Amino acid sequence: MSLTDYFEGNSHHVHHVFYSNHLQTLVNRGKKVENRTFIDLKVIRCRSGRGGNGAISFFRDARTTQGPPDGGDGGDGGSIYFTVVDKNLSSLHRLKRNYEAKNGVPGRTSQLDGKRGDDVIIEIPVGTTIKWIPDPLKGSYPVGEGWNFVEGDRESYEEKFYFRDLNNKVKIYDHEIIQEELLFDKFPLLGLDLNKPTTKPQLLLKGGKGGMGNMHFLTKDIRNPNFSKKGREGLTSFFLLELKLIADLGLVGLPNAGKSTLLRAISKARPRIGHWEFTTLQPTVGTIFTTIDKDPFTVADIPGIIEGASDNKGMGLDFLRHIERSGGLVFVVSLEAEDPVKSLEVLLKEVGEQRMKNKKILIVATKADLSENGGNYELLRKYTEDRDWKIVPVCAMKGQNIETCIKLMSEIAYSSK
Fold first, then answer.
1. Closest of 307, 285, 313 to residue 297, by C-alpha
2. Where do the structural domains in the chain lie, given as residue ranges?
3. What tens digit of pLDDT does each residue of 294-333 get?
4. Hey, which residues does 168 pair with through a beta bridge?
5. What is the CB neighbour count within 10 angstroms for residue 370?
6. N or C: less crowded end of the chain, CB within 10 Å?
């Protein structure tokens, strides 16, 4: 390789696979990519830990049969956190259905507080949105309740005026705890859009507060408090996670338009290729290298769009979500088609103006070697130039005009970043 090729980009290194003697090996690798588990929608159940109960205990030693109360507080329940990571995760299949933080440990004697419950941190891929599914069954004990009595003492204490006086004071504490729970138990109505990695875990569900031990309830009227406070319940919620792939460019085309072949020619991706419709059954992200002084850009190849996809015909909506975050759109139109202009119009209609808003557009005319005398290309070129869109003809299988295609793609990708 010459220095010119090294610094300016080797004109063959991105599509030499079509001239390799190991084509079958690459096809098998593409099959593995296609057959991997791909999930872009998932509902998960999260439960934060319940607070541990406060202890009922009294100091004892060799000379004292029952001293002052020394029951410790229960530990707080574990919380649920999430962190957004960029580890080349392009699927939600690794996420579990249920996440439960540990409960707080009850308090102990000698004024020892219980251990806090272990937290749970969920790793979520960049590009995921989280929406809360309301659950009407949430809640813990109301203000003034949640007492934990030694067996048989409840009625006797509840009848005493000094316990009722103590309960009124504790109600203020209960109210503060509930206000704190409400402060942390908030979630945006429109959900969270996790389009960039986080630097530290973010709170999703806070664990329940641990209950107070009986050492807090020693008063001039209550010398032997045989009661403590229960821990607050944790929160249980369901969340809908929706992954939208993040790529600089979105590759859109009808089934069998040659998108996968094109992506394979210009990138390191290895999608399966074939001469039948719907070869691609899940999105693929390819990485494209240009020159050594520029970062690579990425292209998302989504399964073929059919007419009616925007109305969720076939798996339309499932596919179209993966181009919403891209900075530019590359429409792939096969010149083998009887009317390529009509094919492009179908794609434009299904993608819709909203998804195309503020996006750069490039038209790639594939299978140029199958166009008779270039007639189909001229019709398509006139249609696109009337709209000030750039167009480039390619023959991906033969590696023809690939470098020009990469150059035009890079212009759109870098201008959109």
1. 285
2. 3-37+247-416, 41-243
3. 788 888 877 767 665 555 555 545 667 777 778 889 999 9
4. none
5. 13
6. N
